[in-house]
Amino acid sequence: MCWRLGLLALLTVGLLGRGAPQAWGQGADPVLGVSALGSGGTSAVALPDPFLSSLNPALAARYGHYSAGLVAARPFGLLSFQGLGGTAPLSERSGLALEWLRIGYQDAELSYRRDRLRVGIGQALWDWLAIGAAVAYRVESASLDGEALGQASGWSLDWGVQARIPTISGLMLGWTMRNWMSPRPGGRWSSGAWVHLQGGGEARILPREVRWGMRYHWEEWSLLLERAEGWSLGLEREVSDRGALRLGLWDRRRAGESLRWTFGATFRWRSFAVDYAWVAHPALENTSYFAVRWEAPYRIPPVAVEGIVLADLYAVLRSYYARPILARELRPYEEPLQFSGKTQARIGELWLYNPTERSVRIGASVRIPGFTSPRGSEVVGSVEIGPGERRIVPMERLLLNDRAGLIREDRLLEAEVEIYDLDRPDRRRTTARVPVRLYGRNKIRLDELAKLSVYVVSTDPTLAAFVDAVLPLAEDPRLLGLPRPLRTALVLLTALQGISYRSDPNLPYESGTVDAIQFPAEMLIALSETGERPAGDCDDMTVLVAALLEAAGVPTALIQAPRHVFLAFDPGGYSIERAQAEGWDRWTIAIDGVAWIPIETTAVPQGAAAAWREGVQQLQRPVLDSVRTAVGWERYGVGDVEKEGSSIQVDRERIREELGRVLEDPWLEEALESFRR
To answer: How far apart are the first and last CA of the chain?
Structure first.
């Protein structure tokens, strides 16, 4: 008799029989998702929520967040309603959802309680299709006048499908079947949710329920539509990052009930949110639902880093590093053991492995404390790595700050590298630290002649002051009839006779060692202020002369010979054919079809005539390379200029006297005469 009373209580309560059906519909399995309740009870394609298990377990494959939530309500002023839920991603394509629900009723005579535990799992089969399954276990009990009427328990299976429509951006379809089957004694399975009564017997407490739904999202709006026993319609608008508003309509007129209106809202703060839903009922008291939830993004980084290497950086090449590369090559590799820690790349390389089954689009940044912005510099804009692929990704550019371009001492630093998912920016970033050497502004590896042009800083105010002081001497009557670039070069070379030459033991271009080079302004300041004869090697002398000529508007070119470098300047744009026809090609060198005058810069202390004459003699040796300074600037940029220039003291009388002696040189007289014709 006891179990019959218990069964009668459970069935007549049915959450309290005719007068108290669930707000979710007579004979339906209640959902915990407050956001779903606020948007008309739509659950097959519900909005993101920790209570996915009772909505559609397939959604767990797409949620991509760790979450936990607590919900409470007092439906119709009669029932107590509490629930806990949460989700946990298992991989890029799967997730787990778990929830517990307790519904209860108690008055002076009757007491009823149902506990439900549901565990669901979702798996994405493809980028556009995910499926899910859930197991629900229920325990129900009732008592009358303090005497237990009985207890019942049972479990059932749910299914879910979620699909994206690739051709329509923002459209999602969903299908769920709740209480698909339950086990019964004798190995039988029947549709619906069945419970086994304490003391024997069984009862079907919930029918099988099928729901079809769609969700369309555009900008800050979401439209939800669902079909079950009736229609449900929901609309959500994201107000800002801090919250959202919802409105829903529940059409259950086919079940003999009136339309129901719902309203919902979300308020967010950092990782926490509060959800609210108001559900109208045609006969009973309207109900408010509250939920508090916490969320954190999936913490598996987008790719595995199997190697990072940064090349040595040179402060003088700061503008060169800031230029994006035009052609980027992603090279494959077989295994991480191939990583040697060395690179020929301009800035560095990332060795990345995508262990997942889907492509990932990544970006990367590098932060060098004190020498980049606090947030770092983007070194990889966008690179796609396919499933299971290993790729060597070159760094495209690096923005160093002004301080980096002006340091004089070498620094051994630690760079912080971050790699992030561009399509899912809330994912955890892959981070690593790697050492990097930043050489002072006077150091450079001259493995290419054009790199020397970065020291030809013709815009330095110190050079401008020197040129302005010397250039009036180019109007000397003894120079009349000569092309202006040639007159300018003669007086500037004469003004530099106070500089001494010293040999360079590094022998750049052949040994591959890092060379130290003086900026032109540094040598000019020493020439003007110290009273001593500043000294420089062939590199120092070449960039000084080239910078002064360029500052005066005379184009220059750099010339490389074995174990040596010197320069040439353009005396006026004469073609090499004209030079040959007029017989003065013996004093010039052909560069890009133009006749240029070679200058041996180490002979500048002996005067302009000696510098030109020995420049011509250098042409008897093999010329390995030549490059116009302007081309070098286009390729590597120009070194940073000091913010304030220095005043330069120029003894014009001395320069005028030296120029007179230079013009008396017979070799120079013959060469200049050919240019006067």
So the answer is: 133
CA proximity to 655, closest of 488, 392, 470, 458: 470
The separation between CA 209 and the C-alpha centre of its own chain, rounded to angstroms, equals: 45
Give SS3 for 60: helix
**Neighbour-count burial of 119, counting CB atoms closer than 10 A to its CB (0-12 exposed, 13-18 middle, 19+ buried):** middle
Q: What is the dihedral of CA 395, 396, 400, 405, to 10 degrees?
A: 100
Instruction: Give the pLDDT confidence of 307-352 residue by residue, as tens digits.
Output: 999 999 999 999 999 998 877 788 999 999 899 999 989 999 999 9
Q: Are 455 and 545 in contact (CB under 8 A)?
A: no
β-pairing, 500-501 vs 535-536, is parallel
Query: DSSP secondary structure string, 381-419?
Result: EEEEE-TT-EEEEE-------HHHHH--S-EEEEEEEEE
The DSSP-derived string for 150-169 is EEEEEEEEEEEEEEE-TTST
Q: CA torsion, points 528, 531, 533, 537, in degrees to nearest 10? A: -50
> For residue range 444-473, what is the model confidence (pLDDT) as tens digits?
998 899 999 999 998 888 888 889 989 999
Token representation of residue 268: 């967010």
The Cβ of residue 387 has, within 10 Å, a number of other Cβ atoms equal to 12
pLDDT exceeds 50 at position 24: no
Sorted by sequence, the CB contacts under 8 Å of residue 313 that are 6+ apart come out as 321, 347, 398, 400, 436, 437, 438, 439
Distance of CA 414 to the CA centre of its chain: 20
State both tokens at 439: 């050489």
Which of 44-53, 179-188, 547-556, 652-661 shows the lowest mean pLDDT across its residues?
A: 44-53
Cα(225)–Cα(233) distance, rounded to whole angstroms? 5
Q: Which residues contact 410 (CB under 8 A, 6 or more apart)?
A: 437, 438, 439, 440, 443
List, as own/partner pairs, every contact residues 79-85 make where C-beta atoms lie below 8 angstroms and the sequence separation is at least 24, other chains included.
79/15, 79/16, 79/20, 79/103, 79/104, 79/105, 80/104, 80/105, 80/106, 81/30, 81/289, 83/32, 83/51, 85/32, 85/49, 85/50, 85/51, 85/52, 85/53
Question: What's the CA gap between 244 and 237, in Å, rounded?
Answer: 6
DSSP 299: -
Distance of alpha carbon 86 from alpha carbon 62, whole angstroms = 14
* Residue 575 per-residue DSSP state: B
Geometric angle at alpha carbon 372, from 370 and 377, rounded to 5°: 155
Pairing type for strands 430-439 and 313-314 reads parallel
Strands (E), 198-303: 202-206, 209-218, 221-227, 231-240, 243-251, 260-269, 272-279, 287-297
Q: 274-307 burial string, b = 16+ CB within 10 Å, else e?
A: ebbbbbbbeeeeebebebebbbebbebbbbbbbb
Here the tokens at position 344 are: 């020929």
Question: What's the DSSP call for residue 640?
Answer: P
